[in-house]
Specification:
The chain is of the alpha+beta class and 300 residues long. A 4-stranded antiparallel sheet has the order 3-5-6-7. Strands 1-2 form a two-stranded antiparallel sheet. The longest helix has 34 residues. The termini are far apart.
Length: 300
């Protein structure tokens, strides 16, 4: 028996390099793979058994170890796959194809391995959604002629895209588990996400990861209610140093200088306290007001 496994090599990915290529083909062409023979697998098993390891599987074979969670190589590839999705170059069907390849590479045939893969993919999906959101914020800053460093941006479109992928990953994970007769409990696994100390940059949730970037990286915005659901179409851009705030939704947008806010000089106001529009536009922005009340920003 010979198994081809996704290896542990650190591939370098570039959207510019792949701009004229099918992105899925480009990603697969970057893989460092190896042929794993029965002899190699037996030798590895012997080494681990002598060391007292109870279970050894072959899928993510390296010279030193075989593991039951996605390797760094797979997670790096996942990140580029999801970058492709959030930039419109990878479809949901292609995501499913990659998921199945990772599952087979890991020989995921029990609940732990299947859910480890699911959690990894979900976490990376949210990470890349937030990255895409903040990258768009930098593009807005550049167009507005202000420094792109520490630009805050929230776009509900990314939130809803990430939630769609969340449901899609659940669906394909359950489908895969059923194929191999494995019972899995996704809800139980997800219930522990917010208690996992390993999630230093936010647990698998768009708002959790956005909050980390806005509060800990950029330093002057936060969303305390992580389960808050944004209205569809809502966006806001904020640049503290330039006192620039732009808020928008379906059918309206508003740009203002926060230094001349009509509602007092509170240093840490709610977003809703800084926004003032005339009565003719009130019908547009009022539907977003409840969500804006949940966002806290810092003023100079």
């Amino acid at each position: 028996m010979i198994v081809t496994s996704i290896g542990s090599g650190a591939a370098c990915y570039s959207m510019d390099e792949a701009k004229d290529m099918n992105l899925s083909e480009y990603i697969r062409g970057k893989r460092c793979t190896m042929e794993i023979t029965d002899e190699m697998f037996a030798h590895t098993r012997d080494l681990f058994e002598k060391a007292g390891v109870q279970e050894v599987t072959y899928p993510q074979y390296t010279k030193f170890a075989v593991i039951d969670t996605p390797s760094q190589a797979i997670e790096k590839e996942m990140a580029f796959v999801m970058d492709g999705f959030y930039t419109g170059r990878i479809s949901e069907d292609e995501i499913k194809g990659f998921f199945l390849e990772y599952a087979h590479s890991m020989q995921a045939r029990n609940e732990s391995k299947i859910l480890n893969l699911y959690e990894s993919f979900l976490n990376i999906s949210y990470e890349r959604a937030v990255k895409g959101c903040f990258d768009e914020g930098k593009d807005i800053a550049e167009k507005e002629g202000v420094d792109t460093n520490k630009a805050i941006y929230y776009d509900a479109d990314y939130y809803y895209q990430a939630e769609e992928i969340h449901e899609f990953l659940k669906e394909i994970t359950e489908e895969y588990a059923a194929k191999y007769g494995v019972e899995i409990d996704i809800e139980k696994r997800e219930s522990g996400f917010d208690k996992n100390p390993n999630y230093l940059t936010g647990y698998p949730s768009f708002n959790s990861k956005w909050n980390f970037s806005a509060h800990n990286v950029c330093g002057y915005a936060r969303l305390p209610e992580l389960d808050a659901v944004p209205p569809k179409g809502f966006t806001f851009f904020y640049k503290q140093r330039d006192r620039m705030l732009m808020v928008g939704g379906n059918g309206w947008s508003e740009k203002m200088d926060t230094s001349s806010s009509p509602r007092g000089a509170n240093r840490y106001p709610r977003l809703s306290d800084l926004l003032y529009v005339d009565s003719q536009r009130e019908e547009y922005w009022s539907q977003y007001n409840d969500f804006m009340k949940k966002i806290i920003i810092a003023r100079q």
